[in-house]
């Protein structure tokens, strides 16, 4: 039995592609572009990324609250989709300029503050748009279906779109880098990233159009934000199926199953809101820190040629795509908490392997060169499992409280963006030098392996606590339905 049609599932799956394409460039190549193409110092590059992360972080709760309350186009268009459209336009108008050099810019001659002033407005507009699209797209899920497994399936399809988008970015980047004359990144490669940004915007705009075409906001919200309109086959309208929907959609919030979240401020009274926020923040730190510092690990710690900054992320996301398609199958037998733990174990194992591979620094043993593929596979599968599970745990938290779902996703994203921005600035400030020396190689090896592994450990503990406090306890004691077992 399915409450949503294949057409809507397909449309929803591609609704975040523009954001995903841009995010692949943002996290993988922004610091590389600023640091190794424009030759900005590490601090300036880090501050530009921080500006973006903070803008995104503070925009998401605002967008969440407003999109729960009102649509930008009144009643002529859906609330969620109107914010999605606004975000799409902002991204289209700003992203290309982020990967376009400042007019008359000369590396090591033009002052860094000129780049800081020039790029900041484009980054702010881009991140406001990115946040609007992300929150509105996520908040559609609870409105489309009350069934937990279908929500997990939509998250998996969404992540599948993320992975395919990233594969496309890295595949095109590899083709461009392969055609370059030099094995090292430099000023002459600036046009590669500009052309890649143009392709990203054109492709993403097309898929955003498909989302708006195929996913109408048909589901209406009841007086307290519960799902009032669920479409499923009348032939399946028997007691077993009705019970399945009721169990899968039960509010997962308070000690009384009759209590419902009416205002966004009421979320702050719930312990699970904070624990889920910690899990989501840790998940994004694992994924984003791996993505941001993998190119530096490859070039500085391993000393491989520049085409590897496209090949390795490509393998990471191919393995992530395979995992994203496997999660709905695994979810039939084990819950999202267990899948999350499996993901962190895969990530930590891959980072241990990566640390061993980068010893000694700067000259990986030719006989072990292809082991980086194994590291990439483990990292991709682990990050996919972690991210999909964290989104499903967020949907678990929301339950039927769809009227405030956008705020919840916005609040989760706030913790994610601030944490990522601060982490990058701290790391950039600790960068020992601006060259590709052995000290840099050791530094980025520690960041990617020890640093991210520590985040994995913290996230695993939070997920274990979530399971025993909010999932495993009997219903009469906690009021939580075990919807994802």
Tell me what the structure shows.
The chain has 16 helices and no strands. The two termini are 18 Å apart. Helix 2 runs antiparallel to helix 8 and helix 10 runs antiparallel to helix 13. It has 485 residues and is mostly helical. It is globular, with a radius of gyration of 22 Å. It has one domain: Up-down Bundle (Growth Hormone, Chain: A).
Main CATH class:
Mainly Alpha
> Strand content of the residues, in percent?
under 5%
Q: At CATH's second level, what is the architecture?
A: Up-down Bundle
Please work out how many helical segments DSSP would assign: 16
Mean pLDDT level: 82
Kindly provide the radius of gyration, computed on alpha-carbon positions and rounded to a whole number of angstroms: 22 Å
- Structural domain tally: 1
In N-to-C order, the SSE pattern is: HHHHHHHHHHHHHHHH
Low-pLDDT residue intervals, each spanning 5 or more residues: 219-259, 474-485
At the fold tier of CATH, the topology name is Growth Hormone, Chain: A
For the sheet with most strands, the description reads: none
Basic shape = globular
According to CATH, the homologous superfamily is MFS general substrate transporter like domains
Distance between the termini: 18 Å
Helix content, binned percent: over 70%
List how many beta strands DSSP finds.
0
Keywords: Membrane, Transmembrane, Transmembrane helix
Transmembrane segments: 21-39, 45-63, 83-102, 122-145, 157-176, 196-215, 273-296, 308-330, 337-354, 374-399, 406-427, 447-470
InterPro entries: MFS_2 (IPR039672), MFS_trans_sf (IPR036259)
Pfam families: MFS_2
């Amino acid at each position: 039995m399915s409450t949503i049609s294949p057409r809507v599932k397909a449309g929803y799956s591609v609704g975040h592609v523009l954001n995903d394409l841009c995010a692949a460039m943002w996290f993988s190549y922004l610091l590389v572009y600023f640091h190794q193409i424009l030759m900005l110092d590490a601090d300036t590059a880090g501050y530009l990324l921080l500006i973006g992360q903070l803008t995104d972080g503070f925009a998401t709760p605002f967008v969440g609250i407003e999109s729960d309350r009102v649509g930008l186009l009144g009643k002529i268009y859906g609330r969620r989709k109107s914010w999605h459209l606004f975000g799409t336009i902002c991204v289209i108008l700003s992203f290309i300029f982020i990967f376009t050099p400042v007019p008359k810019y000369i590396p090591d001659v033009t002052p860094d503050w000129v780049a800081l002033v020039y790029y900041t407005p484009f980054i702010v507009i881009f991140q406001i748009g990115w946040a609007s699209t992300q929150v509105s797209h996520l908040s559609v899920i609870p409105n489309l279906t009350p069934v937990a497994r279908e929500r997990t399936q939509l998250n998996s399809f969404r992540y599948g779109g993320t992975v395919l988008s990233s594969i496309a970015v890295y595949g095109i980047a590899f083709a461009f880098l392969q055609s370059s004359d030099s094995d090292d990144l430099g000023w002459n490669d600036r046009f590669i990233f500009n052309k890649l940004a143009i392709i990203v915007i054109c492709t993403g705009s097309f898929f955003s159009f498909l989302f708006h075409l195929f996913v109408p906001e048909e589901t209406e919200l009841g007086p307290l934000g519960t799902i009032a309109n669920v479409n499923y086959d009348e032939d399946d309208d028997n007691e077993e199926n009705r019970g399945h929907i009721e169990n899968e959609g039960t509010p997962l919030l308070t000690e009384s199953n009759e209590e419902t979240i009416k205002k966004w401020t009421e979320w702050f009274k719930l312990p699970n809101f904070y624990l889920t926020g910690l899990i989501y923040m840790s998940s994004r730190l694992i994924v984003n820190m791996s993505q941001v510092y993998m190119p530096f690990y490859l070039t500085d710690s391993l000393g491989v040629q520049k085409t590897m900054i496209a090949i390795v992320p490509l393998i990471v996301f191919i393995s992530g795509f395979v995992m994203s398609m496997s999660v709905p199958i695994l979810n039939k037998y084990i819950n999202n908490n267990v899948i999350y733990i499996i993901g962190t174990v895969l990530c930590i194992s891959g980072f241990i392997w990566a640390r061993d591979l980068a010893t000694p620094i700067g000259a990986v043993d030719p006989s072990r060169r292809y082991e980086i593929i194994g590291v990439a596979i483990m990292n991709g599968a682990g990050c996919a499992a972690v991210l999909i599970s964290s989104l499903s745990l967020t949907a678990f938290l929301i339950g039927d409280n769809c009227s405030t779902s956008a705020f919840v996703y916005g609040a989760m994203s706030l913790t994610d963006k601030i944490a990522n921005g601060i982490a990058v600035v701290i790391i950039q400030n600790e960068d020992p030098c601006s060259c590709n020396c052995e000290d840099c190689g050791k530094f980025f090896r520690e960041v990617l392996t020890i640093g991210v592994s520590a985040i994995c450990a913290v996230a695993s503990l939070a997920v274990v606590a979530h399971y025993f406090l909010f999932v495993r306890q009997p219903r009469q004691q906690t009021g939580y339905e075990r919807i994802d077992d």
